[in-house]
Design goal:
Residues 353-362 have a biased composition (Polar residues). With 650 residues, the chain is mostly beta strands. It is 6% helix and 54% strand.
């Protein structure tokens, strides 16, 4: 950590001696969850450079969902909202609340970094260090940014497929409050409320919510339903200590219980998950605002337990906990009107413990692991000629076990014809050390090698008819070496890793050499009438194994074809009606591509009516045609359901 801080200090000292012409230049805020992230302005992007910048200067492919768009979707689960965006798919072991994997551009779920208010949520105790999105409800969220492609320079080695940054609501009035309530099919109910205020010195908000549903059977052919219940709370406080100094603390907590089924069997098992996210930081500006700084501490704690009540003497069947502690510094320096530097240092410690008790061995020892990573990064962004913004950065990681690695990233955005045309291109490298579960669990393999990635994309965005029509196309390509997967052991196997110490195990994690993914994202938006909006996207993803017996086979549960189409019409009386269609193509449930999961098309209807300036009634029908579908073979999914609700803002 000392070496990281020295490198960052040296860089900042060099930048502080920059040209005198920057004296009046103000640096963007060095705060990934600050005002720019919560003001609902879609033309500003924070996640791409960890500072607020206009979207037309961003070289990466990014989607911004503001609070009006989130509310209009009427989505309950964040992952279902994300699945309406280009390049994003998910799989889930049943209905809402079940184990959920999020995939961006065909990458594994552990290759996507999910953040809440800038804090990484990835769980060190999960099977491959990824984040289970099943417990992530919309709640008090005001903004979501989805950044596609490798983003490891600023967000760490795990940000290979992309980054999802979720920002909770930040008050803008002296006092404001909100209440949302809804209910419907499958005895579903959702209540959430929040209140807060903003003054010259203090900004604060607290919020809470409770969700419950009887759900559907996780086993597709089961007869009993598997319900889900979730209680959550969030809060934030920012105090202006001086004109150029502020302190803040933010926290999000959730506690969920989900019933689930075993493999191809209906049973009474259930799990409990507790997740805590805490961030505290100090923000201060130097040199009359040219140099903005942030010093912070982030902490995440995930605790998971599974129970089988049929096993009366030993109902606990799984017990795991993962913690992550991160100390970080980030600086943003305005070198001059055209050049901005972002730089920082991080020290991260991750720990996990996991065990699987059985009736014959009710109190086994925990498999434990810990790892530390020290990092420094730097990035320069410059408008080299009018409309052409170039971004380039480097990241240096010093891993406790796997040594040092240096990664690079570069991007370009060229805004032409007064912003009517934007050309974009980016290149990024990725490095992922094996996760703690992959190394130290009962299926661990301490001989694993790190995963390495190269990724690039290029695209064009074009506006027509004075901005009434917008279309974009992006081609992406990613190559991976040493990707880690679970290797199953057959009975009687002579593989020494199948029976370490003479004790047989069902499998272990191993490097499977290479994979690759490439594809095309098409996005369109049209406003042919002032009160009619039509949006759509289509993604083609060719994600396949690139070595071994399954070379050329499609990666499991990754659809080649996906598409979304929606139309919303606002009537003169204020009534808003909409239809949304989502198509997901055929996938495969195994590496050999012999188990097919059929594609499906879902249609949803939405309606909303403002009763007055403070109250809005809304409703929807999900899966209008009651389509029978699966995201994972033999796991259930919700059928048709109707829901109504009321939204109040004071």
């Amino acid at each position: 950590m000392i070496r990281a801080l020295l490198c960052s200090t040296a860089l900042s000292t060099l930048l502080a001696a920059g040209p005198a012409m920057a004296d009046e230049q103000k640096a963007p805020e060095a705060d990934v969850a600050g005002k720019a992230g919560a003001n609902g302005v879609a033309e500003l992007v924070v996640t791409a450079t960890r500072t607020a910048q206009p979207i037309q200067t961003v070289g990466a492919s990014v989607t911004v969902l503001t609070q009006p768009a989130i509310e209009a979707s009427q989505a309950i689960s964040v992952v279902e909202l994300l699945a309406q965006q280009p390049g994003v798919s998910f799989t889930r072991n049943g209905g809402t609340g079940e184990t959920t994997s999020l995939n961006i551009r065909g990458a594994e779920t552990q290759h996507t970094v999910v953040l809440i208010d800038g804090v990484k949520l990835n769980d060190p105790s999960s099977t491959q260090g990824g984040f289970n999105s099943g417990n992530l409800l919309v709640g008090d969220i005001s903004r979501i940014e989805v950044l596609r492609g490798a983003q490891s320079t600023l967000w760490g080695s795990q940000a290979i497929g992309g980054v999802v940054n979720i920002v909770t609501a930040d008050p803008t009035k002296p006092f404001e409050s909100s209440i949302d309530v809804e209910g419907g099919a499958r005895k579903t109910g959702y209540l959430r409320a929040g209140l807060g205020g903003a003054s010259e010195k203090v900004t604060w908000r607290v919020a809470g919510g409770y969700y419950t549903t009887d759900g559907v059977s996780a086993y597709k052919y089961g007869t009993e339903t598997d319900g889900y219940h979730n209680a959550g709370a969030s809060g934030r406080l920012r105090v202006q200590l001086a004109d150029n100094v502020s302190a803040e603390i933010r926290s999000v907590y959730s506690r969920g219980k989900n019933a689930f089924d075993g493999f191809n069997v209906d049973d009474a098992e259930f799990g409990r998950t507790k997740e805590l996210v805490v961030y505290s930081g100090l923000n201060f500006a130097l040199l009359d605002g040219r140099w903005n700084n942030r010093v912070g501490y982030a902490y995440t704690d995930t605790d998971r337990k599974n129970y089988n009540p049929v096993l009366l003497t030993q109902p606990l069947t799984f017990d795991a906990a993962g913690k992550n502690r991160r100390w970080e510094y980030q600086g943003v320096f305005a070198i001059n009107d055209a050049w901005t530097a972002t730089f920082g240092a991080e020290h991260e410690k991750s720990t996990m413990r996991t065990r699987s008790p059985t009736t014959s061995k009710p109190n086994p020892a925990f498999g434990t692991g810990r790892v530390g990573v020290d990092s420094v990064y730097g990035q320069l962004r410059a408008e080299v000629v009018k409309g052409l913004t170039l971004t380039a950065g480097l990241r240096y990681d010093d891993h406790d076990t796997y040594g040092s690695h240096t990664l690079g990233q570069a991007a370009a955005a060229w805004s032409l014809n007064d912003g009517a045309t934007v050309l974009r291109a980016s290149f990024g490298q990725g490095f992922r050390a094996p996760g703690l579960y992959e190394l130290f669990s009962q299926y661990g393999n301490q001989a694993l090698s790190p995963e390495e990635f190269d990724s690039w994309d290029a695209g064009v965005e074009q506006r027509f008819l004075g901005g009434k029509v917008k279309a974009s196309a992006t081609w992406f390509h990613r190559e991976a070496d040493n990707e880690i997967r679970f290797f199953s052991c057959s009975s009687g196997s002579t593989d020494p890793l199948c029976a370490p110490g003479g004790t047989f195990r069902f499998g272990y994690y191993n490097n499977i050499l290479k994979t690759k993914a490439e594809g095309l994202e098409l996005i369109g938006e049209a406003k042919p009438l002032s009160n009619l909006t039509i949006t759509g996207n289509y993604t083609y993803t060719d994600a396949e194994t690139d070595a071994g017996a399954n070379k050329g086979k499609q990666l499991t549960r990754r659809p080649k074809n996906m598409g979304n189409l929606s139309a919303t019409y606002r009537w003169p009386v204020g009534l808003s009606t909409g239809v949304a269609v989502r198509y997901v193509g055929r996938t495969y449930n195994n590496d050999a591509n012999t188990q097919v999961v059929k594609g499906y098309t879902l249609v949803d209807l939405r309606v909303a009516y403002p009763i007055n300036a403070r109250l809005e009634a809304f409703g929807r029908i999900e899966n209008l045609f009651d389509k029978d579908y699966q995201t994972i073979l033999n796991y259930g999914a919700p059928g048709r359901g109707a829901f109504v609700g009321l939204r109040a803002r004071f």
